[in-house]
Structure formats: C-alpha cells, structure tokens
Recover the amino acids of this structure.
C-alpha cells in the first residue's frame, strides 16, 4: 500500500499532465466589494471549462450577497439589486459549482488575479462549513507578467491581455464574459510557453519570472 497522501497523489496526477490534456476551469466572480473580510459577497459566478482548446461546458449564476449593492458596483458591473432578488445564496450554489468544476484530481482552476476570486470562494466555503476541494490553480495575471515583455503589453490587466491576444469576447465586468476572455488569454499564454519548451502543468506552474530567468547561466 502506497504511503503517498491523497493530496500529493492528485497533485502528481495534475502536475505530470500535458497542458493539451489538462482540464482547466476558467473562473471569474463579480462581488459587492473588495474583500470578504470587509463583508463583501459574491454577486455572480461565471466558469468556462476547457480541455485541449475545446469548450467542455459553461456555468453562470447570479448570487444573492445578502445585502444591497453599493452604487459604484452597479455602475461598474451593471448588476442591480433587482437582478439578484431571486438568486440563490452562496451556500446553495457552492455544491452545484463544485460539481461543475469536477474533481481536484482532474481540474485546474484558472482566474485572472486568482487570489481575489479564491479568497471569496474559500471564505464562503469556510463560513458555511462546505469542504473546499484542494484544486491546483493558475493565475493568468502572474503568468502573463512572467511570459510577456513590457514592450508587448503596457500592463497585465485582463482587458489589455484580451486585446493583445485577440480574444473573441471583450471583458466587461460580467462574470461569464470575463471568464471567456480569460480562456483566450490562457490559450495565448500556453502558446507562448511552448516557445520555452513548457508543455505540462508542473512546468507552467513553476515557470519563473523574467528576472529569475535572467539570473540563470546561459549554459548548464
């Protein structure tokens, strides 16, 4: 019987998988504020599940954050209190979301500025005592900063990267559209990584910043 823990085992399965054979769940949230610690909640979830460049499915749901939306959030996203009246609360939607995302053995979560999105999801799971699957994650903002040069893009905002990679959907602060734009950014970054001979998830996850790569010797 192997002494390998379940967490290490699933990390190994995902890590060794070719990027073309990896299932990515590209996720975006809209929220009522900047931090769950300050009382903000999720208002919309959008996910696009892809593998080998093909869309496997999409998920979209409004979420009732349990309070009225600040005016500036409605101005930014176009989401109103009226649109959320019949929406489920987060504890109702999380199990359905996890079912869609699939097993942590198979699925890698991708988000632009992923710590933001994951902080809301993990806080909600903890509050409602819903176990959090130990998903591996990719932050396309961090990856873009490592892969792209400043003479190519002036910043690594989603809108900038979507334009650079010719995304078919323009990000507009709505969850599913922003997730669709992030899919095109992810695929563009994966194509760039191929130029560095990066072809599996572990290599992508550990791809160093330009500064760290510059410190490496020319030959080893």
């Amino acid at each position: 019987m192997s002494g390998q823990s379940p967490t290490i085992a699933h990390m190994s399965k995902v890590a060794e998988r070719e990027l073309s054979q990896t299932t990515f769940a590209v996720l975006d949230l809209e929220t009522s504020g900047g931090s769950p610690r300050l009382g903000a909640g999720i208002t919309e979830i959008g996910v696009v599940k892809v593998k080998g460049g093909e869309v496997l499915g999409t998920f979209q749901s409004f979420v009732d954050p349990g309070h009225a939306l600040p005016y500036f959030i409605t101005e930014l996203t176009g989401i109103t209190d009226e649109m959320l009246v019949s929406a489920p609360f987060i504890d109702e939607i999380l199990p359905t979301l996890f079912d869609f995302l699939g097993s942590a053995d198979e699925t890698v979560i991708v988000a632009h500025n992923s710590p933001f999105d994951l902080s809301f999801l993990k806080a909600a799971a903890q509050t409602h005592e819903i176990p959090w699957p130990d998903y591996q994650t990719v932050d396309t903002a961090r990856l873009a900063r490592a892969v792209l040069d400043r003479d190519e893009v002036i910043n690594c905002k989603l809108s900038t990267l979507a334009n650079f990679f010719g995304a078919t959907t323009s990000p507009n602060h709505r969850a599913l559209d922003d997730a669709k734009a992030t899919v095109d950014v992810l695929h563009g970054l994966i194509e760039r990584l191929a130029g560095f001979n990066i072809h599996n998830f572990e290599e992508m996850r550990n791809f160093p910043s330009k500064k760290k790569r510059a410190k490496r010797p020319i030959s080893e």
In short: The longest strand covers residues 42-51. The domain at 6-209 is CATH 3.30.420.10 (Nucleotidyltransferase; domain 5).
